[in-house]
Amino acid sequence: MTEALADLERRVVACRRCPRLVEWREQVAREKRASFRDEEYWGRPVPGFGDPEAGVYILGLAPAAHGANRTGRVFTGDRSGDWLFASLHRTGFANQPTSVRADDGLHLTGAFVAAAVRCAPPANKPLPSERDNCLPYAAEELALMRSVKVIVALGAFAWNAALQLSGPIRPKPRFGHSAETELPDGRILVGCFHPSQQNTFTGRLTEPMTDGVFARAAQLGCR
User: I want to staple 75 with a disulfide (CB 3.0 to 4.6 A). Which of 62, 81, 85, 183 is the partner?
Assistant: First the structure.
């Protein structure tokens, strides 16, 4: 399985299926943000990261232009990642609370983090066609990682992407923070507000709320 995931990672990194995303991610990597002008940007699709034997699969939206598109590791180097990995540390999934670069020593136990769309999109808004091009990578990860019992969807986009992966469910389960639904394959989908600054700065998402979701995911993942 580890070899299969490594092969998948190589294919993700080499992907050029979506011309708009290829152009944007590479433009951002060339122009850079002033505060990161001396850094070399990744500027490619960002593969999943974590424990190959994970019971919990965490699905986000897409890499941030100056976060994972810069560092090359999902949710690494931006405020959303700071919030996410701090919570994973508090709930026992991560060995440290920070994630600043791909070689900073972060390890996950029992959790694997990925994005529905693997390239940074303009305005952080992937097109439906781009989502559909990219979702097969998540489907392949989940097919390989048979230990996964819980999918935590960070935001409505990821929730809908996870439902699309699972096959049709009627009526369609509505996204909400701490919402739960059983998928056709027996896995449990759990919703969490996305740890974006729009949610964390306004108090819509608090640390106890985030920790509650991952504590619940840990409980479900051990059943």
Answer: 81
Q: Does the global pTM surpass 0.90?
A: yes
Q: What is the pLDDT of residues 105-149, one digit of tens each?
A: 999 999 999 999 999 999 999 999 999 999 999 999 999 999 999
Question: How far apart are alpha carbons 28 and 66 in whole angstroms?
Answer: 8
The total of structural domains in the chain comes to: 1
**How many C-alpha atoms does 45 have within 13 Å on its Cβ side?**
27
pLDDT in tens, 65-81: 999 999 999 999 999 99
Burial label for 55, CB within 10 Å (0-12, 13-18, 19+), is buried
We report the CATH number of the domain holding residue 171 as 3.40.470.10
Q: Which phi and psi (to 5°) does residue 26 adopt?
A: -75, -35
